[in-house]
Amino acid sequence: MFIDNNWWGHKYILAKYCNVDPKPIFGSIQHGVYSLEEEKNWRLGRSFQKIPFFCFSNFFYKKCKKEKEKNVKAIGSPFLYLDKIYTKKHKANGTLVFPAHSGFYKKKIGFIYKYYKNQISFDHDNFINNVEKYNTPPYTVSIIQDDYQQISKYYKRKNWKIFTAGNRNNKLFLINIYKIISKHKYAVFCEFTSALYYCMYLGLKVRMAVKSASSKNIEFFNNKTSVIEKEIFKSYKKKYPEILSGRLNINLAKNIAKDRMGYNFIKSPDELKNILGWNSTIKIFLAKIISIMYKLKYRFII
């Protein structure tokens, strides 16, 4: 229905869990796992609240209720449902690395919103040196397909394995990410993304890499770190300083991930089908119509 319901394979995973063919969802799914600090600053700001919004965490669900946002339902992250239906069979080994990835900015042209790629400015060479200094090989770098041509060269020079799960419209994206995470023992990040919480949940030893964290002002590898991202780093440095050295307790990390991903809101297949509108021919029809309208209104330009 909404353009981001198809991102990262979320709808595909939920349909697999429910044992149905993927159908348009009557509502909008939160498309990523957010830190507590991001959710504190996040406002839905929906003008039309008759269509449901499906969030993940208990904190954000309660916040929406407090702010009188209507029709908000907590269902937990699609990654949790994937974990229910996928069995890990790999021996964990080596370090999985996630450099900064690009995003999109929206620009209104007439009645149409066009999404343009935001180029990233990132110190790949020093990031690589940091990983090789503090983490054990073999190294695999995960690069979103949209960024492959731009940044893969830095990692090819070092003979690292290069992995891409595809782009955000690949229905197998989340499955691909799950598989590659489950093959590794360690994971290194430079920003707070959904993949960080996925790795925490699956029991990897995670490390948040920075150039320097010895002073009040943290130095980042990302040359354009946002204000909110800086706030998240400061908050985690205060509450969970071990994440900067890779020594964060695995059980504590998993509990953090479960909280952020809404573990307590996991639904049964029948409950989920009803919530997403897949038991109603009227809701499926309406979702299809609105989906067509959104495809005409929102365009991606890579």
What does this structure look like?
The chain has 302 residues and is of the alpha/beta class. The protein folds into 2 domains: 3-84 and 260-301, no CATH class; 87-259, Rossmann fold (3-Layer(aba) Sandwich), CATH 3.40.50. It is built from 12 helices and 11 strands. Strands 8-7-4-9-10 form a 5-stranded parallel β-sheet, with helices on both faces. It has a 3-stranded parallel β-sheet with strand order 1-2-3, with helices on one face. Helix 8 links the parallel strand 9 (186-189) and strand 10.
**Unreliable runs, pLDDT <50, ≥5 residues?**
none
* CATH fold-level label of the largest domain: Rossmann fold
Strand order of the largest sheet: 8-7-4-9-10
Average residue pLDDT: 90
Distance between the termini: 22 Å
The number of distinct helices, counting runs of at least 4 residues, comes to 12
Q: What is the CATH C level class of the largest domain, in words?
A: Alpha Beta
Main β sheet profile: 5 strands, parallel
Radius of gyration: 19 Å
- The helix fraction, in percent, is 25-40%
Number of structural domains: 2
Number of strands: 11
Short account of what is shown:
The chain is of the alpha/beta class.
Layout of helices and strands:
Layout: H1 10-18, E1 28-29, H2 36-41, E2 53-55, H3 58-66, E3 72-74, H4 78-85, E4 95-98, E5 103-109, E6 112-118, H5 124-134, E7 139-142, H6 148-156, E8 161-163, H7 173-182, E9 186-189, H8 194-201, E10 205-208, H9 227-239, H10 250-261, H11 269-275, H12 281-297, E11 298-301
Parallel strand pairs: 1-2, 2-3, 4-7, 4-9, 6-11, 7-8, 9-10
Antiparallel strand pairs: 5-6
Helix pairs in contact: 1-4, 1-11, 8-10
